[in-house]
Design brief:
This protein is mainly α and 170 residues long. The chain is 71% helix and 6% strand. It comes from Caballeronia mineralivorans PML1(12).
C-alpha cells in the first residue's frame, strides 16, 4: 500500500517538499531580516494552511471555525511561552536579528505531513471530504501549526513596534 501511495504521488509534491525542507533548514541559522522579510514565512504558511482547509472543506463552516479556534489558541499559548521573543532589534541596521531555530522546520514538516496525509486519506476515501469529524480534526491541526507560525511573526512585529522602527518594514 505504501509503495502504491508513493508511486501515485505527483512528482511536484517531492519538489515542493525539497523546497520546504530547504526553507526550514535556512530557518535554523541566525539571520538579519527586515520586518517584512521576517514575517513573510509565517504569513505564507498561515495562508497555505487556510487554503488547505478551504480547498477541501469549503462546504463545512465548522472546519473554518476549527481552524480559526486552533490558530487563536496556538497564538495565545505561543505568546504565553515566549515564542519568537528571542529576536532582537539591530538599531544600526534597522533590522531584526532572528536567532536560528528548528521550530520552523518542525512546523513546516508538520503542515506538510498533515496536508499529505489528509490528501492520501481523501484519495482513498473521497467521502471523508464531507465527514465532519475528519474536517474538524484536519482543520484544527492546520490551525494549530499555523498559529505557532503566526505567533512568531507577531512577535517580530511586537519587537519592532516596541523599538519604534517604522522604517524597518521597507
Amino acid at each position: 500500500m505504501l509503495n502504491g501511495i508513493l508511486q501515485h504521488t505527483p512528482h511536484w509534491v517531492w519538489g515542493a517538499l525539497a523546497v520546504l525542507v530547504s526553507l526550514g533548514i535556512k530557518q535554523t541559522l541566525p539571520r538579519r531580516r527586515t520586518l517584512c522579510f521576517a514575517t513573510a514565512v509565517p504569513i505564507a504558511m498561515t495562508a497555505l494552511s487556510f487554503y488547505g482547509v478551504m480547498s477541501v472543506f469549503a462546504q463545512q463552516s465548522i472546519a473554518l471555525a476549527a481552524w480559526a479556534a486552533a490558530v487563536l489558541a496556538a497564538v495565545a499559548l505561543s505568546h504565553a511561552v515566549g515564542v519568537g521573543s528571542k529576536a532582537r532589534r539591530l538599531a544600526s541596521e534597522e533590522r531584526l536579528l532572528v536567532p536560528g531555530s528548528w521550530v520552523p522546520m518542525m512546523l513546516i514538516l508538520g503542515l506538510f505531513v498533515i496536508r499529505f496525509g489528509a490528501n492520501i486519506m481523501l484519495a482513498i476515501h473521497p467521502d471523508l471530504g464531507m465527514d465532519t469529524l475528519f474536517a474538524i480534526s484536519v482543520s484544527f491541526a492546520y490551525g494549530a501549526f499555523s498559529g505557532v507560525f503566526l505567533a512568531r511573526g507577531l512577535a517580530m512585529w511586537r519587537i519592532a513596534r516596541q523599538a519604534q522602527l517604522p522604517s524597518m518594514a521597507y
